Amino acid sequence: MYGESQLYMNGPNLISQKRRQRDPRSAGIVVDGNSEAYLRGGTISTNKGPGILALVNSSVDSVGVAYPGNCEGMIACDSSAYLVGDLLSPKGARARGVECRTPHHLGNGERRAAAPVAPDSRPQKNRAAQYKKFASRK
């Protein structure tokens, strides 16, 4: 994938590539040039390079994907690419075979923002009632 492309892989897909020589660029999927890969399920296996290679401002979002038998690891990135996925622990530790930066140390998963708490307006209402009482004529 190149040039602001997007890949959506969902379900039991198989990406397998058998090259004769070890080449780190012979990945199952190469995500390059500000592209994005969203992977949900499937298998990326038997590649002479990494399962996924992310380059030049690209990102990979991988959940539930198996990466068996890749010679150069599961996912590799250059210094400008990012990974978010279930291969990261909540504390930011990477799984073996993952060489990528993450935009945060939370890994992937469902995160819900805390529900907003309404401020207590009783003091302001009491003060307004006191002012009304003083300001009203009797």
Order of helices and strands: EEEEEEEEEEH
The pLDDT mean sits at: 82
Helical fraction: 10-25%
**Measured distance between first and last alpha carbons:** 80 Å
Number of domains: 1
Keywords:
138 residues; mainly beta; four-stranded parallel sheet; 26% strand
Describe the structure.
The chain is mainly β and 138 residues long. It has one domain (6-108). The protein has one helix and ten strands, in the order ββββββββββα. The chain has one helix spanning 122-135; strands at 6-10, 14-16, 29-31, 36-40, 43-45, 52-54, 59-63, 75-77, 82-85, 98-99. The termini are far apart.
Question: Which helices and strands occur, and which strands form pairs?
Answer:
Elements: E1 6-10, E2 14-16, E3 29-31, E4 36-40, E5 43-45, E6 52-54, E7 59-63, E8 75-77, E9 82-85, E10 98-99, H1 122-135
Brief synopsis:
Helices cover 10% and strands 26% of the residues. By secondary structure, the protein is mainly beta.
